[in-house]
Amino acid sequence: MINVGIIGSTGYAGQELVRLLLGHKEVTIQWYGSQSYIDKKYYEVYGNMFQLVEDICQSDNIAELTNNVDVIFTATPQGYLAGLLTEDILSKVKIIDLSADYRIKDVKTYEEWYQIEHKSKSFIGEAVYGLPEINREKIKNARLIANPGCYPTCSTLSIYPLVKEGVIDANSIIIDAKSGTSGAGRGAKINNLYCEVNESIKAYGVTTHRHTPEIEEQLGYACGSNISIIFTPHLVPMNRGILITAYANMIKQMSEDDIKEIYDSYYKEEYFVRVLNSHVCPETRWVKGSNYVDVNYTIDKRTNRIIMMGAMDNLVKGAAGQAVQNMNIMFGFKESEGLLQVPMFP
Ligand SMILES: NC(=O)C1=CN([C@@H]2O[C@H](COP(=O)(O)OP(=O)(O)OC[C@H]3O[C@@H](n4cnc5c(N)ncnc54)[C@H](OP(=O)(O)O)[C@@H]3O)[C@@H](O)[C@H]2O)C=CC1
Ligand SMILES: CC(=O)N[C@@H](CCC(=O)OP(=O)(O)O)C(=O)O
Residues in the active site (predicted)? Predict the structure, then answer.
């Protein structure tokens, strides 16, 4: 058994970590960290935890936490972990950070897109980008995991094999993405009120969304050069879910069967990536509450483009589920431990 602390346990990603870890055989949650609910019972913040969690929310005393747990999840705003991380902390405990603090290797790019100064640049090089399907070996021995963003997880897993195999021109990629509102967190913001979101759909962060450089970096590794893509997210009136539809020019002529072989070769051993049957389009409703990413593609022969699609739950594979998957790999547990939830429908 290992002991776990969650800083930011009262946010949407944090509560999803609690939900998943309560069903994990190898884990005890020792620390329910919070900023606004200190000394309140956790179930008073999240009623679904009534009679399941008796613990109270605690302040983020990282020194005490470090001495009492084996791994800390930080499900906190951008810049929080970077502001307090030290070698002393990392020498005692493993950290899985759900924010973007250590995802982008080039600090200038990070500071430009996030508009904040990075407070602990020296750890950026060491952090491992926690996308198990691509970086599993590096994750095994990591002390610090940069858990990928929600849109980047869905986008990278949907597109990566075709960039890596040189089937598409990576610079021609256009990603149209949609997210449910839990992606924006639990904090009160006018833009996320019911009347502002319900029965409407809008693009946001057009040309400026901070996930653009993260996706470019990961797909850039696949093709071995710096790339520029277009990434446009949309906010849709649903609680959970991300759908991406990506377009790119084909530079290798291949049949749909050939493409299928490529996807299968990358993902047939990957429990959490489901390559759907021919021409079945991924849907958020078929992955909700689970750690699956459903992917598929179609060739548009008229334009010589390929359309790649992916769907997943932003709070599970897009955040907490992926974080637990990373923890399982780091501690040598079965990778799917605590993550076998069947998608919930309706
Ligand atoms: N929501 C999503 O789909 C995804 C989120 N993430 C990332 O996870 C992180 C958390 O996101 P999310 O759960 O949505 O956000 P929320 O706003 O729902 O939660 C934020 C959490 O951080 C705590 N917190 C806020 N400010 C501070 C602070 N200054 N010091 C310590 N704790 C603080 C809050 O405490 P309290 O509640 O007590 O105020 C809360 O527990 C972010 O970095 C986000 O980018 C990653 C992938 C997907
Ligand atoms: C709908 C919505 O607002 N989504 C958030 C992305 C989700 C998130 O929290 O960002 P990370 O995945 O980088 O941690 C956004 O666009 O900023």
Answer: 150
Asked whether the bond before 346 is cis by omega within 30 degrees of 0, the reply is: yes
Name the residue among 299, 310, 311 with its Cα closest to residue 168.
299
DSSP assignment of 196-243: HHTT--EE-STTT-THHHHHHHHHHHHHTS----EEEEEE-SSSS-EE
State pLDDT tens for residues 164-193: 999 999 999 999 999 999 999 999 999 999
Report the complex ipTM: 0.98
Residue with tokens 């509450």, as numbered in its chain: 289
CA distance 300 to 55: 54
Average pLDDT over every residue of 46-54? 98
Each residue of 144-171: pLDDT tens digit? 999 999 999 999 999 999 999 999 999 9
pLDDT tens digit sequence for 123-135: 999 999 999 999 9
Query: Which residue out of 150, 154, 223, 281 is catalytically annotated?
Result: 150
Q: What is the pLDDT of residues 27-36, one digit of tens each?
A: 999 999 999 9
Both tokens of 92, joined, read 């005692």
Q: Which residues contact 301 (CB under 8 A, 6 or more apart)?
A: none
Helix (H, G, I), strand (E, B) or coil at 341: coil
Handedness of CA 235, 237, 238, 239 (dihedral sign): positive
Domains of the chain: 2-149+317-330 (3.40.50.720), 151-313 (3.30.360.10)
- CA 196 from chain centre, in angstroms, equals 25
Ligand 2 atom nearest the C-alpha of 184 is: 3
Q: Which residues on neighbouring strands pair with residue 243, listed in sequence order?
A: 178, 311
Q: What is the atom index within ligand 2 of the atom nearest the CA of 181?
A: 1
User: Does the CB atom of residue 177 touch ligand 2 within 6 A?
Assistant: no
Task: Indicate whether residue 149 lines ligand 2 (CB < 6 A).
Answer: yes
Is-catalytic flag, 195?
A: no
